[in-house]
Amino acid sequence: MLSSRMSVLTVSFLAALFLLAPSLYAKTCELALQGSDQMKFDKKELVIPKEFSDVKLVLKHVGKMPKAVMGHNVIIAKTSDISGIAADAMNPKKAKDYIPQNDQRILVHTKLIGGGESDTVTFKKSVLKAGGDYSFFCSFPGHLGMMTGKVVVK
Ligand code: ZN
């Protein structure tokens, strides 16, 4: 009885260690962004502090409208690349779900979602340089003007 309880304890201890292990090496910064039926993000700036090695970005569409009408995504790129990416996003030969495919200018992106949905993307902070001029935006047609902000990398 005692030994079987011990082994259960040992297994759960090892399982806990295994689950904890990645966090000992990688520090993940969690960023949350909400998009609404009013064609707005809830933030104008995403800040990634210095001490993190990884970033987890969660996009949540808090509205009710379907993605064909009020779709939202998040693309992170150099600020100078944003307008070019937004133009290609509207070209069905280059883009899928308004995300240009195999586009090296796109550093990070979520998928396109509709009301009530969410999407999470994780990435190495090293895809962005500290102090670089980066922006995020939604590439759904017509949304760039309302749905954009800065990404600040410390
Ligand atoms: Zn949008």
Any chance you could write out the topology, listing elements then pairs?
Blueprint (H helix, E strand, L loop, with lengths): L1 H24 L2 E8 L9 E4 L5 E8 L5 H4 L4 E4 L3 H8 L5 E2 L2 E2 L7 E2 L8 E7 L9 E4 L10 E6 L1
The protein binds zinc ion.
What report would you give on this structure?
The protein has 154 residues and is of the alpha+beta class. The chain is 23% helix and 31% strand. It is globular, with a radius of gyration of 19 Å. Bound molecules: zinc ion (ZN). Zinc ion binds at residues 35, 71-72, 138, 140, 143, 147.
Structural descriptors:
23% helix, Immunoglobulin-like, binds zinc ion, 5-stranded mixed beta sheet
How would you write the strand order of the largest sheet?
2-10-9-4-7
End-to-end Cα distance, whole Å, is 54 Å
- Total DSSP E strands: 10
Q: Tell me the helix content.
A: 10-25%
CATH-scheme architecture: Sandwich
**Small molecules held by this entry:** zinc ion
CATH classification, class level: Mainly Beta
- Tell me the overall shape: globular
Strand content: 25-35%
What's the order of the H and E elements? HEEEHEHEEEEEE
Provide the low-confidence segments as ranges: none
> What's the Cα radius of gyration?
19 Å
- The CATH homologous superfamily name equals Cupredoxins -  blue copper proteins
By CATH, the topology is Immunoglobulin-like
